[in-house]
Amino acid sequence: MKGIRISSRYAKSLLNLCVERNEADRVYEDMKLVHQTVRSSRDLRIFLESPVIKSDKKNAALSKLFGALVNPTTMAFMVLLTNKGRESMLPEIAESFIAQMKQHKHITPASVISAAPLDEQSRAAIIAKVSSLAPGTIELEEKVDPGLIGGFVLKVGDHQIDTSVLTNLRNLRRDFSENPYIPEL
């Protein structure tokens, strides 16, 4: 819980600074890159979490890794985190910044898992349904899971719509197992 609050506060401070400087979109792209890079590299995470490695070595490594790719504001923010001993929280701070930026830009993330890839008509219908649940721009993440047999599972924030055949079969199985009917002999 403490880590979530800290990462949220750092992310909010960075967002406020970026909005003030009109760099929010660029830093948003930078944070997506940082988040993806740190999450995908186990060695980098171990390096950042190590209490043995001094902050100047970590700053040098981050500068070499991201220096030419990110905005100076983003790089200065990562140096600040390292100097404050919060570099191990970089993935969580980046994730929190991405979420706060989406909220700031009124982007609603939604995910749909379907048994087969969506066609344009289905995608448009799902986006229309998501638009009725949440205002703003819709960012739809699509996944395919043949195990659903048919239908889809749509998640938007705390809402979930599950029309999959797999769930219907599970519900039917549960209903039959709870059937109190006892035949008379």
Account of the protein in words:
- A 4-stranded mixed sheet has the order 2-1-3-4.
- 60% of the residues lie in helices and 14% in strands.
- The chain has 8 helices and 4 strands; from the N terminus they run ααααααβαβββα.
- By secondary structure, it is an alpha+beta fold.
- Helix 2 (24-40) runs antiparallel to helix 6 and helix 4 packs antiparallel against helix 5 (72-83).
- It has 2 domains: 2-103, Peroxidase, domain 1 (Orthogonal Bundle), CATH 1.10.520.20; 107-177, Glutaredoxin, CATH 3.40.30.
Number of helices: 8
- E-strand count: 4
Q: Low-confidence segments, ≥5 residues, pLDDT <50?
A: none
State the CATH architecture of the largest domain.
Answer: Orthogonal Bundle
Structural class of the secondary structure composition? alpha+beta
- N-to-C CA distance: 60 Å
What is the fourth-level CATH superfamily of the largest domain? Answer: N-terminal domain of the delta subunit of the F1F0-ATP synthase
Helical proportion, percent range = 55-70%
Question: What's the pLDDT, averaged over the residues?
Answer: 92
Strand content: 5-15%
Would you give the CATH topology of the largest domain? Answer: Peroxidase, domain 1
The order of strands across the largest sheet is: 2-1-3-4
Outline: elongated
